[in-house]
Automatic annotation (TrEMBL):
Top-level taxon in the UniProt lineage: Eukaryota
Protein name (record): Cell cycle control protein
Transmembrane segments: 37-57, 321-341
GO CC aspect terms: endoplasmic reticulum; Golgi apparatus; plasma membrane
UniProt subcellular location: Membrane
Family that this chain belongs to: Belongs to the CDC50/LEM3 family.
GO biological process: phospholipid translocation
Keywords: Membrane, Transmembrane, Transmembrane helix
Biological source species: Seriola lalandi dorsalis
Length: 353
């Protein structure tokens, strides 16, 4: 019987008399019994346990060292100096000495870290002009209103790059030195290029068209952000191709972190020459730091992180522990169900009074 046409009322809204609309299609209704459910629970507990142990062993195979240098050693004088805003333009350097007990084998990654810096604040994340960062000349001279109050300087000139994110870029720099037992100090070579995502470097961040002009001429008529020491076209004095909006350090900083405690990549060990062909050897090291970034105003801390990586990433124990906890809970439930089933029987006759 099909839909009744030309009539109003309940009959006009009645669905068709088909197997699909009247829910008469064949259906599979599994009968869940102890003989099928309990093996499944034990199997899932075993799978989660094996995955947890495997990931835990993988994570523990990495090596990591964190060094908080906020007010450590000679950095304490720089920490006190940065408390006064009037000293923001003055340079300050310090040195931190540390040692590595076991060699870091393989590729070693150098990160800088910040604590209690909320890059995930919505107004902070919105304070940028992606049209400007992608190289549009219109946005270069007319920044988006989202960048307010970091769109123009006191003379009305546009800021490039505009916004709070670019204005607060992390500007400490590091030089790592290895002090071998029987040799002179050796500077640890770090690769500072090619450390960004491919899509960031080639799609999301691009310089304006040059048109046979120099990069400084392209940015003519703009000014550097308020808290920067040099303009965007002079960020890397060593490599001219690493200037402007495609500077690796700028790109990495512009990818906001999701949590207030985070680390960002600064460089990767260059393993071309001895004694770093196998990684970082054990011994004494020092880090010469150009101390520029203030953390007192948000009660933050600064650190450097040396770590090796695996296919799973760095030292993150969350997923292995999550698998092991899940395995334990599933196993506990399975044991409880097994005890109940054995006590009352699969037919439930022992429950009768």
């Amino acid at each position: 019987m099909g839909r009744v046409k030309g009539k109003s009322g309940p009959l006009a809204r009645r669905p068709d008399n088909s197997a699909f609309k009247q829910q008469r299609l064949p259906a599979w209704s599994p009968m869940l019994t102890a003989n099928t459910v309990l093996p499944f629970f034990y199997f899932m507990a075993l799978i989660c346990m094996l995955l947890g142990v495997w990931l835990l062993l993988t994570v523990q195979s990495t090596q990591e060292m964190k060094l908080d240098y906020t007010d450590a050693s000679t950095c304490n004088k720089c920490f006190e100096k940065r408390k006064n805003v009037s000293n923001a333009g003055e340079s300050c350097s310090c040195t931190v000495v540390f040692s590595i007990e076991r060699p870091f084998k393989g590729d070693v990654f150098f990160y800088y870290g910040l604590k209690n810096f909320h890059q995930n604040l919505r107004r902070y994340m919105d304070s940028r002009d992606d049209g400007q960062m992608v190289g549009r000349k219109k946005n270069l001279k007319n920044p988006s209103s989202y960048c307010e109050p970091f769109t123009r300087d006191q003379n009305g000139l546009p800021i490039a790059p505009c916004g709070a994110v670019a204005n607060s870029i992390f500007n400490d720099s590091f030089t790592l030195t290895y002090h071998g037992s029987n040799q002179d100090p050796v500077r640890v070579p770090l690769l500072r290029r090619g450390i960004t995502w491919y899509t960031d470097k080639n799609v999301k961040f691009r310089n304006p068209r040059m048109d046979n002009l120099s990069l400084a001429q392209v940015f003519d008529g703009t000014v550097k952000p308020l808290y920067w020491h040099k303009p965007v076209y002079e960020l890397d004095p060593i490599d001219p191709t690493n200037n402007g909006f495609i500077n690796d350090d700028l790109i990495i900083w512009m990818r906001e972190a999701a949590f207030p405690n985070f680390k960002k990549l600064y460089g990767v060990l260059h393993r071309a020459n001895k004694p770093f062909t196998q990684g970082l050897p054990a011994g004494s090291y020092s880090i010469d730091i150009s101390y520029n970034f203030p953390v007192q105003y948000f009660r933050g801390r600064k650190e450097v992180v040396l770590t090796t990586l695996t296919w799973f990433g760095g030292q993150n124990h969350f997923l292995p522990i999550a698998y092991l906890v899940t395995s334990s809970l599933i196993l506990l439930i399975a044991v409880i169900l097994t005890v109940v089933w054995c006590k009352f029987g699969k037919n439930g006759k022992n429950m009768e009074e």
